[in-house]
Every structure is written in C-alpha cells, then in structure tokens.
C-alpha cells in the first residue's frame, strides 16, 4: 500500500475528498492544482496555471479542467465533477473512483461496469506542460474516451464569464488543436499521443462555483468555455497521453516524455520523501536568477521567507549547490538594496528590517555544513557589509541605539513577519524594540565576531564582543520580566505584555543573549501557553485579543492572522530550542510533536504542509495550501533530530 492512498469510501465522500487538494509545479512558477477528485474549489485551481509576464505579475488559468467520458455501446459515463450554484454537483464522476494514490505520480483508478481506467498526472519540470496518461486496464467491449477541456484564460484573482469577445477560433496541430480566447494570451496547445478526432462543439458551462472562495467572503462563480471534445478509440491495455501546454510538442513523443518525467520523480513513500518533493516545488528559475516561492497558490518570492526557508529546502536535503544558487540571487537583492539601487531581481519586501539578519542566519546554517573556510571566503564580505550597514544607521527601517539594541518604527506599516493590516494599519503594531529582531541582532554581532577572529582581526573582534555584551545586557533589561517570559516589543514607556512566540528565537538562535535558566523559562512558557500539534500559537489564549479561528471574510481573517493561529515553522524553532536545552532527554517528546506535522500529509494538500492552522482544536489547516517556511523548517528539524539521535 502506498504511503499516500485513499480508498473508495473517502473518495466518494465529498465532505472528505473536497478538503484534500493536490499540487504539482514546474520550475518556472507554473502549477496544476485541484482537489483529489478533480473538482475545483478555488479560483486558484486549474489544470494548467502559468505566469504570463507580458500581461502582469500574476499567474493565469488557461486550462481549468478536463472531463473524461467513457463511451461504451453508445452509453456515456462522464468521470468529471463540478460544483454549480445551488450546491449542485455534476456530473458526479467521483462515484466511479475506486482508489487514489500518490507515490510517484498522482494516480486515480476508475471503475465503470467492466471498464477499469487508470489516470496518471505529471507536470513537466522545465516547461509549462501538464501531461495526463489514461490507461484502459480492462474492458470487455469497444471503448471510446472523450476528453472535454474547460478553458478560462484569466488571472487567478479574477473570473471569466460568458461573453462575445472570447475567440472560438482554433487551428489543427499534431494530433490536437491550438486555441486562444483573448488577445495578449499565448496559444494553448492540446495534443494527444495518438490519432484522435476533435469535435468542434463550442459552449459555455455557466454558474460553476468555488466553495473555498465563498468561505473567504469573495465572489465565487464563473462560466467556463468548452470548445468541443477529443474522441479516441481504446482497447484493453492501450494508453494515451493528453498534453496541454503553451508550446507545441511532437505528439508521437508524448508517451516517451511522460515516462522520462516519471523517471525524474522521487517516490513519495514516506514523510521525509514527501517533504523533499514539496521542497522542490518552491524552486523557481527565471533566466540566471533562482528564487524560492513563499507558497502556493498565491505567494511570490518574499525576502524574509527566502532566507528562513533556504537552509531547510537545500542544506537539509544535501543540496548545497542549490543553496548557493538561491543565495546568489538573494545577495544581489540585498546589495542592490543596501546601495540604494532599484532591484533587478523579483524578490519582494527586501526593505523589511529583519531580512538582512535572517540572511546571516541562513549563512550560519551553511557554515555548519561546509565549514568556516569556505563560508567566510564565499559570504564573509556580505556578512560584514550587512552588519556595518545596520550599525552605521544606513538601513532606513532600522535605528541602532546607544544601548546596543536596534529600533524599528512599526506603527504605520508592519515591519515584522506579523504583517497583517486592517484599514491600512498593522493589526499588531509591533514597534520600538522588537524581541526577535534584537535577538537576531545579537546573533549577528556574535557571528561577525567569529568572522573577525577567522580574519585575524583582533581589534574588530574585541569591538564586536563589546557591542554584543552591551546588546546582551540591554536585551535582558528590556525584554525579561519577573514572570519568566519575554516582552514582545517595548516602545518608550509602552511595554507589550502579550505572550507571543517571537521570544522563542532568543532561545533557539546559535548565539543567545539569555542565560540557560532564562532560555528554559522561555521554552517552558511556550510549552504551557503556545504549543499545539501544528506549531506555536501566535498569541497565548490568556492574552487579550486572542482570536484563534482563521475563518470568514478577509477583514475577519486579518484580525485573526497573528492573534492565536498556529504556525509550524515557529514550532520548529521551539523544538530546536528544546533540544539545545534538554538534549536527548526530550527526543521522544520532539518526535511526538513532529507526528502532528505528518498528519498534514493526508489531511489538506496531500504531500505538503499548509501555511497555518487554527489555534484551537481540531487545529484545522488554513491559508496557503503549501508554505515554504513550514516545509523547510520541518526538514531542518528532522536533520537536527538526526544529529541528536545518531551522535553519542
């Protein structure tokens, strides 16, 4: 039995199957995403969703879905499934599903009377091309397959509706057609691996509805254009491959292409391999630049996410060369920002004050893998320049103060990872001395001191140690309190007493300004008030404003985003701090906590980890269906656990 497998009882129960999504990506930012029963429930869902930079910076749904119909003796059995207005589902093809598995490629087995049909799906790695292979495993009489494409040609943030502007024109290509609904879009090529007949029967399917958009308080219905259908004769044992792409391919080679792509895939046979597969999905290459997408289906490459996710997505799975490629693009963004230049790379939010210090943290993790010599030769100047940039007060969103701490102004604009806004202002106005930013600053100073020692610069090392000592004293005086946890932020006479997870970084980073007892107290507080099976809550239930359910319209969700929801990546820093303090004595506890993350492999978007979860039971997954920092930090935690497990 496959690690990821669902039987007929679950697949035919829409309350269960529609909650489980499936994501496949390539390396250019394109993706294919739907539910495991092929019923689209989000406007972001689609069989072929691609970036079209000539139009805008968004992804665009070209091919929304593909209905397959089995025809025997003139009787049609449509295997498709769509939700229409009024809570109507049609044509209810899910009732024919016998099982679904996802070991190497997503595979669905349908049974229609004496017909057993297998469908496999794969996304070509470096081209915007989705491939579906249909194999007729059993049939006792002549069988036809009809493949009916549903076209959208729209941004993922919009909807399409029946209109007279959409072009119905199409041109034949090798074993298929090409068509384009609107000017400015690329042609969509739809081809089969064997001879077929395309029947031109244009129509609009009206009132298709997306329940996930309804839940989020958005518009939720659209019309999709169907130009006709492809019909092909099949006999027992036959396989055909359907390809949809923005470029033509030699149809006679489609079957070989499918096999080649399958051979490149890592079998998702356990939790770890699922995470590795998920890690690869965030890779995005654009010419000479390499990016990490923050998450699917709506996030782009964001600076903070890039540097936090970078070690886990590369070093933890022995892909040091990829770390260097992603860091090369990240360094370009950092240097252009520090030099006051317009960014030439597509990394967003580089101006956030903690971003350069997270870059140094990522380099520290690289240091642990390759050693001092290579690290400082490759990144020593970048580390030094970042620290100097901050210390000399050149960062426009950071101020270095005489007490050794750094100060940020977050009253009018969110300046930390807790970045939700309402009415144009931060929901959590973290301003002044912010706990994790100053923990990162202390870590930066200590790491720079190590760099100075490596460079035999005793004077610089002594100055940095003096700065770090001042920072440590001020950090404790500013954030520590008599109750044993750390204040979240302090601004002049105002002290935020909320119990939040940001204090965990002061205990988890390689260099901590806290004593052992203080770190234990922080970890214990997180254990008692913030820990859930899905990570750390963003706010304690005992603190004012606790709002753990990330549901409802946008405004309601904005107020809950960082007010009690649980975040897996924070939970991983907590586990790292726990192991630093308690060593092997807490290994069993840490492994039990990791089991909570493994549950997500089959509950939400299968084989990956979602963005966040409700802070209260049953800790339902919310937000983006696949989130880079969560996948990365779980992988990094597995690597850390391994060191404690196998090192005596």
Shape: elongated
User: What value does the average pLDDT take?
Assistant: 95
User: Which stretches are poorly predicted, pLDDT < 50 over at least 5 residues?
Assistant: none
Q: Roughly how many Å is the radius of gyration?
A: 26 Å
Please indicate the percent range of residues in DSSP E strands (runs of 2 or more). Answer: 25-35%
Counted beta strands = 35
Number of helices: 18
Order of strands in the sheet with the most strands? 1-9-10-11-12-19-16-15-14
**Biggest pleated sheet:** 9 strands, antiparallel
* Class computed from helices, strands and strand pairing: alpha+beta
Give the N-to-C terminal Cα separation: 35 Å
**What helical percentage do the residues reach?**
25-40%
Brief summary:
The mean pLDDT is 95. The protein contains 18 helices and 35 strands.
3D structure, described in words:
The chain is 34% helix and 27% strand. β28 and β29 (494-495) form a beta hairpin. It has 18 helices and 35 strands. The mean pLDDT is 95. The strands form ten sheets. A nine-stranded antiparallel sheet has the order 1-9-10-11-12-19-16-15-14. Strands 2, 3, 4, 5, 6, 13, 17 and 18 form an eight-stranded antiparallel sheet that branches. By secondary structure, the chain is an alpha+beta fold.
